[in-house]
């Protein structure tokens, strides 16, 4: 039996250790590349899901929720449900304009608590026995009165189309109790268009679910899941009762309950034996769940060469073992040393392919296999860099503004779309003019501090509306979604924003229409009475004075009969203009009906109110209105009353002022009357036309 020398034993040991190192290197390369690829994919999917959820809120759900919140406060709807007269044709006309501007809105309607639908636009005939209380939208609104809500998808009664309804109760302004339900039927076409515009890997998809797991809309793989009979996986995703598994080699298991404000993680589903990575995000408002689905196989295509390289490495190990054993027996240690040095350089990160041996012997084969492994590792590194590049491109090409800042406001990342929204040429231009800080963007710096406090209290801030400045000082409204990122010792704030100036201005216009008299531009009766109630509460709480004036245009019918209603409208507008010049900024004028007006005087006792009333009366008398090349004189009669505190009701206050107004009318008009220990009236002129000193507020008091 041949005895192996010490030198040969050492060479054999070197062969074994080199083979093990080769296997370890291949396995390490594959595992590292796979983990890096999956981590990058999860991060990219999380960002994409956050961006898409925010876009759904800003461009679809939020817009219609705000529209319903505004429509339900329309005084004409409240009047109808209260059994009072209202402008039926005007309400239909405003609803028609509303629907023309929103092609996805299908029907708008409201019903009383008995289930009777009063108005539906576009107009449709309903069966005589139709009861709105049996419909999903009515039940959803009554379950949560006073809150804008969303129904599950259902088949619309008239056309048979599948819609979702945004609904809310119409509440009594005085008692706050529901009078009925207002609803807006919306197709899911706009939501589907938002999903269809998202670029996804092959075989992927998107799915929007209700909180109970019912599909709202879907694309790609999401549509395939939505059509299945077994909806248990969808219900589990929507309710958060899943167990999320990280990649098997990490040994981590993620479990949890999904809520509206949860910072949701990634999970894997088995779909027909294929692992699918999902990212679930709550969509605030409707309470929906957005699910992004990407097959794992699509994510790992870039590391396939590493998998085959590992197999080759094992084969290379066997060849290396055989070759080096042969070298140990024939004394070819020099060639083994070259291969060992090659492997050490690869371990140090040098992936240069070296053709050390070109022959067809064992060393040449081993060199070729080692070159294949090095090439696979180099390709995996390139794939990782490409994944990082794709992530950067996703941020740069996202259809919303994105920036990442330090806590003190220093800009670390800003995408091109965000710079364009703010009026800058490009990112470099924006960072230069802003001095690398987001603080100059805020119209109210305290808004950013409040947002940071909210982030400290929770993980995210969703749908916050802020006033920012564009380049040049133009003020705009933005909808902001922000979340905490970065390391604990270097926290960062990642924000996504959209320009919602048009939506905010539309809402403000709707609010103005709901509170303003269309003819004169002053407060309407509903707004005036609501403000009177607030001021009475404040006066009672702090023991402050409060007075009310009721004014009526004298001989107004004669103006209409003589000059026409257009002239009458001019007189009413003229009276309100003159009144405004005689009042303070915090006083309020309201048109209570016809030619009757009210003036709310906070922090004003009766004596001072009389002086104000006399000033208004005299100003109106001294300022005639030009009508058709003629001057038409106009006067007003005024009744004044002071709020008496806790034992006084607003109805009694208005009644006393109205009684004094009637006394002024009966006393000859063009005068001010107030109820004191002895009711007092003052007029502006005596019978001779001279100024009457008794007309001053002080004398009248």
Automatic annotation (TrEMBL):
Q: Where is the GGDEF domain?
A: 544-677
* SMART domains membership: GGDEF, HAMP
Q: Which UniProt keywords apply?
A: ATP-binding, Cell membrane, Coiled coil, Kinase, Membrane, Nucleotide-binding, Nucleotidyltransferase, Phosphoprotein, Transferase, Transmembrane, Transmembrane helix, Two-component regulatory system
Reaction(s) the record says it catalyses: 2 GTP = 3',3'-c-di-GMP + 2 diphosphate
According to its UniProt record, the EC number is: 2.7.7.65
Domain HAMP: residue ranges: 333-382
Query: Its topology with respect to the membrane?
Result: Multi-pass membrane protein
Q: What class of enzyme is it?
A: transferase
GO MF, one annotated term: diguanylate cyclase activity
Coiled-coil ranges per the record? 366-397
Q: Report domain PAS positions.
A: 387-424
Q: Which InterPro entries match?
A: dCache_1, Diguanylate_Cyclase, GGDEF_dom, HAMP_dom, Nucleotide_cyclase, PAS, PAS-like_dom_sf, Rev_trsase/Diguanyl_cyclase
Region Disordered: start and end of each range? Answer: 678-701
Subcellular location(s): the record lists: Cell membrane
The portions of this protein that span the membrane are: 308-330
Q: Which domain of life is it from?
A: Bacteria
Pfam families found in the cross-reference section: dCache_1, GGDEF, HAMP, PAS_8
Name of the molecule in the record? diguanylate cyclase
What is the originating organism of this protein? Nitratidesulfovibrio liaohensis
């Amino acid at each position: 039996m041949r005895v192996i020398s010490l030198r040969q034993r050492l060479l054999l040991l070197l062969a074994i250790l080199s083979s093990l190192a080769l296997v370890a290197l291949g396995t390490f390369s594959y595992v590292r590349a796979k983990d890096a690829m999956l981590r990058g994919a999860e991060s990219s999917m999380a960002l994409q899901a956050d961006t898409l959820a925010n876009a759904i809120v800003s461009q679809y759900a939020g817009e219609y929720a705000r529209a319903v919140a505004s429509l339900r406060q329309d005084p004409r709807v409240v009047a109808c449900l209260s059994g009072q007269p209202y402008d039926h044709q005007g309400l239909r006309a405003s609803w028609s304009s509303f629907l023309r501007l929103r092609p996805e809105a299908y029907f708008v309607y409201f019903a009383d608590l008995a289930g009777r639908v009063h108005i539906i636009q576009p107009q449709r005939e309903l069966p005589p026995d139709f009861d709105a209380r049996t419909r999903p939208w009515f039940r959803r609104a009554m379950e949560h009165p006073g809150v804008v809500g969303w129904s599950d998808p259902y088949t619309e009664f008239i056309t048979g189309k599948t819609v979702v309804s945004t609904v809310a109760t119409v509440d009594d302004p005085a008692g706050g109790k529901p009078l009925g339900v207002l609803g807006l039927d919306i197709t899911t076409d706009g939501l589907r268009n938002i999903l269809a515009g998202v670029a996804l890997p092959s075989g992927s998809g998107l799915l929007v679910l209700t909180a109970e797991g019912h599909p709202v809309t879907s694309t790609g793989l999401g549509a395939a899941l939505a059509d299945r009979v077994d909806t248990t996986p969808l219900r589990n995703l929507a309710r958060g009762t899943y167990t999320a598994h990280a990649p098997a080699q990490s040994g981590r298991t993620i479990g949890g309950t999904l809520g509206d404000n949860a910072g949701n993680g990634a999970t894997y589903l088995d779909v027909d034996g294929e692992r699918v990575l999902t990212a679930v995000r709550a969509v605030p408002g409707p309470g929906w769940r957005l699910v992004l689905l990407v097959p794992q196989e699509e994510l790992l295509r870039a590391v396939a060469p590493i998998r085959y390289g590992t197999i080759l490495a094992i084969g290379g190990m066997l060849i290396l073992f055989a070759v080096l054993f042969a070298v140990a027996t024939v004394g070819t240690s020099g060639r083994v040393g070259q291969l060992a040095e090659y492997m050490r350089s690869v371990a140090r990160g040098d992936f240069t392919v070296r053709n050390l041996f070109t022959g067809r012997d064992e060393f040449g084969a081993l060199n070729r296999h080692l070159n294949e492994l090095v090439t696979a590792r180099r390709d995996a590194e390139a794939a990782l860099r490409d994944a990082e590049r794709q992530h950067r491109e996703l941020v740069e090409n996202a259809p919303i503004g994105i920036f990442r800042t330090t806590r003190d406001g220093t800009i670390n990342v800003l995408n091109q779309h965000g710079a364009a929204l703010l009026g800058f040429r490009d990112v470099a231009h924006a960072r230069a003019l802003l001095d690398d800080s987001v603080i100059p963007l805020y119209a109210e710096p305290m808004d950013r501090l409040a947002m940071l406090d909210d982030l400290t209290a929770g993980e995210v801030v969703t749908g916050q509306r802020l006033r920012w400045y564009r380049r040049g000082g133009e003020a705009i409204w933005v909808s902001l979604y922000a979340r905490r990122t970065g390391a604990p010792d270097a926290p960062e704030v990642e924000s996504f924003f959209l320009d919602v100036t048009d939506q905010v201005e539309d809402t403000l216009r709707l609010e103005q229409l709901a509170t303003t008299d269309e003819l004169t531009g002053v407060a309407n009766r509903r707004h005036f009475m609501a403000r009177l109630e607030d001021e009475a509460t404040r006066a009672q709480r702090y023991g402050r004075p409060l007075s009310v004036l009721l004014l009526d245009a004298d001989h107004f019918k004669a103006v209409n009969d003589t000059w026409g209603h257009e002239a009458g409208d001019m007189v009413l507008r003229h009276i309100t203009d003159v009144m405004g010049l005689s009042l303070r900024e915090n006083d309020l004028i309201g048109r209570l009906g016809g030619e009757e007006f009210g003036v709310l005087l906070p922090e004003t006792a009766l004596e001072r109110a009389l002086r104000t009333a006399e000033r208004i009366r005299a100003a109106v008398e001294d300022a005639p209105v030009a009508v058709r090349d003629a001057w038409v004189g106009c006067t007003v009669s005024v009744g004044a009353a002071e709020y008496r505190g806790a034992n006084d009701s607003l109805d009694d206050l208005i009644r006393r002022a109205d009684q004094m107004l009637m006394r002024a009318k009966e006393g000859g008009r063009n005068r001010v009357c107030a109820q004191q220990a002895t009711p007092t009236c003052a007029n502006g002129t005596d019978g001779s036309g001279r100024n009457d000193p008794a007309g001053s507020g002080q004398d009248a008091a």
